[in-house]
Design a protein that fits this description.
heterotrimer, A alpha/beta (331), B mainly alpha (342), C mainly alpha (331), A: 331 residues, alpha/beta, Rossmann fold, five-stranded parallel β-sheet, five-stranded mixed β-sheet, 13 helices, 35% helix, 16% strand, C: mainly alpha, ABC transporter involved in vitamin B12 uptake, BtuC
Chain lengths: 331, 342, 331
């Protein structure tokens, strides 16, 4: 269950660096003239991504991010975006660095405000084919635009992609190495503590539905830490399997494990849909089915922060999630 | 209720071009360009009239020119065409059904388009093909409506009932499909179902303009027979109108118009219902002039709804479909009620 | 229809009712063998199967019984009072009016869920009032078609408002979708008990109104001749119908077409429109349809569930079309 073969795959999302030399062949009219400062850096790179290949000025200064994961990972690479889409919650996620407060909000992840983006005169725009495919032509007219195929589950590949687009491959590799190292360290400590075989169940309570996460972003963090999953939550094919299943109360027994990690949707979710997440949780957890789960009986149910485990979706979030594994399982 | 009952609100008056307010159409014709231009000025950054004009004709710096010509103009053109198509479609359907409450929103046409669209979103078709899927859905729903009621007369009750039934079934199926969508596709489905003009480009504008170019002239050709039809089947037959053929033609043209509109903008509700009423109020019973007026009013309504949605709750942008539903619908209900009383 | 035939029909309805009740206890998103279900009914509380059956399936079966009967009887009353075969809680806007009011009251104003039924009552009555006003505003007065269209438009408006409320309250698409259709999932047996007196009073009222409605069916003049006050009867029947629909909305959310379809089926089976018989049979067949839809929904998309409201619409809407096409409609 270890990620080493995947790390090899990271570089498979190819980046062809073409030194565009001194010619201003790239579309970025406002390309920063920092080639002299950065020494050996080329003035433009060609990035291969979900929508084709795009020339991006090296290194772009004014970056616009169209997704939670992009914002997170760009910050991790040491760049503060000039514009980013609204977080899913009312405020920025608590784990993000303070620089996030300087970022201008440019609409939502589902409907970014093209005019506001244009007004920022970005050097590069980072989005995803999943969310923004239809907007690609217009975004490309504003600035060179780089899309990942999807979001969430592919977050590590995406970190490399953003690193390429920002001309910061080294920083990208360092960030990923640091994450893997942290994951390996936690795995080793779990082994020491005799908890390597702990089966961790991952569930999320929302106002009107309850989910078990199998893979996806949160599942990948558990996997990297070397943790096992209960029988009902294991998948044969990581890439093909559905990321989550939505369950009804009758299937509460499938939520069992040695430890149950519970994501509770933030308060704002509680305002939607005539249901209240507290109400939902109260209803589910007061059943004798829930009370009978072995993790519940053993007192091994922990609430985890869903902005770390699910909403953030970038490498900073993943690292924060690793920290919480340490806090919860390695006291 | 029998099919021979005369239409409640529309017609009954002599069918000839009779304008209650002669200047009304002129006013409308002037209002539309003004509305379009206003929409070009307003956005997340507002432009002065001169700046907007300069950007429009190409004498402006890069950023303004791009915002006006690259972003706002295709969006406004799409809005105008969508509104015009919906307004015209409403006139045809209300005339055909001889009922002032008929519209593609409640007759299953829009719901059919929505169903096809969410299925297409679930199958991850490229966004450019989404309008095609939606238009197909609208066409299929209308064809079903026709087949189910083909033995009925040209107008009337059966079509309405069958339409409401198709709407309900299609809408239930939409819910079912949405509930089964993979997580990543949900956002796209919800955005589409809200009825929005967000980031519409020239491809969308062209698609709906082509539909309009086909549908609107056909609507004008049919509108004369429509005004005869509104007198009742017997009188219409007496006047030499072939009921069955006219019905098929009316349904088809109404479906094309509503179909392209829904296809590019999603289900923007209540425009097809409301625009014909306002038009009749201004220029009198169904005629070519009413049709033109309804198209212009529909265009104005959608453009206004889009601007209001973008600005009123900024930075949260509301889709135009939500604005027409939240603000337009209650007003419309009130109007329908009041006018009916007279 | 002879007494024997009538008894036969009643017997069949009772058998059908018993069958769905048994199926509703035996079938769910978790498959339990029949022996285990039987054992669960008498068994100890430790068993998972026992908890699933007693804590989850029995409450939702009870909720389905009550909601189904209420909707069906409400449909009979409305069809009788308006002398309109298409009148029903959903087509008059009552269901969506009630649903909208519940969202406003419980989710927005934060009122306790116990007021849901009264909110639904007020919302339903208001929506029906608007639909009726709209339908009677034409020159030709109230016609069945105008009523249906008015109700459809009012429902569309309310649905749009409900969606708008949810959108303005921010977010994530995937949380609101379940509220678009009614469901029996997660019903609490405790929620049914406080409503029971209301249900009993309303059902008794319906029984008393059956005679006057029969008189009304002969035409207003005949009814006056028989000593009835048509307006008063209509008003009372309308109020009782809205109350019953409100109970159903409070229990199960907006569920369409049960109120429309069941009275028609009952009349067709009885080959009679006598309200007392139709009421009785409808009260039995309503739960058959609703619970039947609920059971299909539980198994159609395992491990998750499809809401009963979606399936009643899928079953009921074609019936509306059939009514429209078959009957020399509605005069």
């Amino acid at each position: 269950m270890k990620a080493s073969p995947r790390r090899a795959a990271l570089s498979a999302i190819g980046v062809i660096m073409t030194v565009a030399g001194c010619s201003g062949a790239s579309g970025g009219a406002n390309a920063p003239a920092n080639a002299g400062g950065a020494g050996e850096r080329p003035t433009a790179v060609t990035v291969e991504h979900a929508m084709g290949t795009t020339d991006v000025p090296c290194a772009p200064e004014r970056v616009v991010t169209l997704g939670q994961g992009q914002t997170d990972s760009v910050l991790a690479l040491g760049v503060t975006p000039v514009g980013a889409v609204k977080p899913w919650t009312d405020d920025w996620y608590d784990y993000l660095p303070d620089e996030i407060e300087q970022v201008e909000i440019i609409g939502t992840e589902l409907e970014p405000d093209l005019e506001a983006i244009a007004a920022l005169q970005p050097d590069v725009i980072l989005g995803s084919k999943l969310r923004h495919e239809a907007l690609y032509p217009q975004l490309s007219q504003i600035a060179p635009t780089v899309f990942s195929e999807t979001i969430g589950v592919s977050w590590k590949d995406n970190v490399s992609l953003w690193a390429d687009a920002l001309c910061r491959q080294e920083e990208g590799q360092e960030a990923l190495d640091a994450y893997e190292q942290r994951a390996d360290e936690i795995e080793a400590r779990l082994e020491e503590a005799g908890k390597a075989d702990t089966e961790v169940s991952l569930v999320r309570f929302m106002p009107d539905q309850v989910r078990i996460y199998l893979t996806g972003f949160p599942g990948s963090v558990l996997r990297d830490a070397g943790l096992n999953r209960p029988q009902d939550q294991q998948v044969d094919n990581w890439d093909e399997s559905p990321q989550l299943i939505e369950i009804s109360e009758e299937r509460i027994p499938e939520m069992d494990g040695d430890v149950i990690l519970v994501m509770v949707s933030d308060k704002w979710y509680a305002q939607t849909g005539g249901h209240d997440v507290d109400e939902t949780m109260e209803r589910w957890t007061s059943t004798d089915l829930w009370q009978g789960l072995s993790a519940v009986q053993a007192g091994n149910v922990h609430e985890i922060n869903e902005s770390h485990w699910n909403l953030g979706g970038g490498i900073l979030a993943a690292t924060t999630a690793l920290d919480s594994i340490e806090d919860l399982l390695l006291p | 209720m029998t099919d021979a009952r005369p239409a409640p609100v529309v017609a009954v008056r002599p069918v000839r071009l009779r304008m209650r307010r002669p200047g009304a159409v002129t006013v409308l014709a002037v209002a539309l360009p003004i509305g379009i231009f206003a929409a070009l000025m307003v956005g997340s950054s507002n432009l002065t009239m001169t700046d907007a004009l300069a950007a429009l004709v190409g004498h402006a710096d890069g950023s303004d020119a791009f915002v006006v010509r690259g972003l706002r103009l295709p969006r406004v053109v799409t809005a105008v065409a969508v509104g015009a198509a919906l307004g015209a479609s409403g006139v045809l359907l209300q005339g055909l059904l001889r009922n002032p409450l008929g519209s593609p929103d409640v007759m299953g046409v829009t719901a059919g388009a929505s169903l096809a669209a969410v299925i297409a979103i679930g199958a991850a078709v490229p966004p450019l093909l989404l309008p095609l899927a939606a238009a197909t859905g609208a066409g299929l729903a209308t064809a079903l409506l026709h087949l189910l009621t083909t033995r009925a007369g040209a107008g009337g009750t059966r079509i309405v009932l069958a339409g409401v039934g198709i709407h309900a079934a299609a809408y239930a199926a939409v819910t079912l499909v949405v509930a089964r969508l993979p997580m990543g596709r949900l956002g796209a489905a919800e955005v589409w179902l809200a009825g929005s003009l967000h980031a519409r480009n020239w491809t969308h504008a062209t698609a709906v303009l082509v539909g309009l170019a086909v549908g609107l002239p056909a609507a004008f050709l049919l509108v004369r027979r429509l005004s005869v039809l509104e007198l009742g089947d017997e009188l219409a037959v007496g006047a030499g109108v072939a009921l069955r053929r006219t019905r098929i033609q009316l349904l088809a043209v109404a479906a094309v118009l509503a179909g392209v509109a829904v296809a590019v903008a999603g289900p923007i509700g209540f425009v097809a219902l409301g625009a014909p009423h306002i038009a009749r109020r201004i220029v009198g019973p169904t005629s070519g002039v009413t049709l033109a007026a309804a198209a212009i009013i529909g265009a104005l309504l959608v453009v206004a709804a889009d601007v209001i949605g973008q600005r009123v709750f900024a930075p949260i942008a509301l889709p135009a479909g939500m604005v027409t539903a939240v603000i337009g619908a209650p007003y419309l209900l009130w109007l329908l009620h009041r006018w009916g009383r007279r | 229809m002879s007494l024997v035939q009538r008894l036969g029909v009643t017997g069949l309805a009772v058998v059908a009712l018993v069958t769905v009740v048994v199926a509703s206890v035996a079938v769910g998103s978790v498959s339990l063998p029949v022996s285990e279900v039987l054992g669960a009914l008498s068994g100890t509380r430790e068993l998972e199967s026992h908890l699933i059956v007693t804590d989850l399936r029995i409450p939702r079966t009870v909720a389905g019984l009550v909601a189904g009967a209420c909707l069906a009887v409400s449909g009979v009353l409305l069809q009788g009072a308006t002398r309109n075969p298409l009148a029903s809680p959903a087509l008059l806007g009552i269901t969506h009016g009630g649903g909208f009011a519940v969202v406003v009251a419980v989710a927005l104003l934060g009122l306790p869920p116990s007021v849901a039924v009264w909110a639904a009552f007020l919302g339903g009555a208001a929506a029906a009032g608007v639909a009726l006003a709209l339908a009677t505003s034409g020159r030709d007065g109230l016609s069945p078609i105008r009523l249906v269209l008015s109700g459809a438009i009012v429902s569309a408006v309310l649905l749009a408002w409900t969606n708008a409320l949810l959108a303005l309250n921010e977010h994530a698409a995937d949380d609101v979708r379940h509220w678009l259709a009614g469901s029996l999932a997660g019903r609490d047996a405790a929620a049914v008990a406080p409503l029971l007196p209301l249900v009993v009073i309303a059902l008794a009222g319906s029984w008393l109104l059956a005679g006057p409605l029969d008189a009304l069916a002969l035409g207003d003049e005949q009814a006056v001749g028989l000593g009835q006050h048509p307006t008063r009867v209509r008003l009372l029947a309308g109020l009782v119908a809205v109350l019953l629909a409100a109970v159903a909305v409070a229990l199960a959310g907006p569920i369409a077409f049960v109120g429309l379809a069941v009275p028609h089926v009952a009349r067709a089976l009885l080959r009679s429109g006598r309200h007392r018989q139709v009421l009785l049979l409808s009260a039995a067949l309503g739960p058959v349809l609703l619970l039947g839809a609920d059971i299909i929904g539980r198994v159609a998309a395992r491990p998750t569930e499809v809401q009963a409201g979606v399936l009643t619409a899928l079953i009921g809407a074609p019936l509306l079309v059939r009514l429209a096409v078959r009957h020399k409609a509605t005069s």
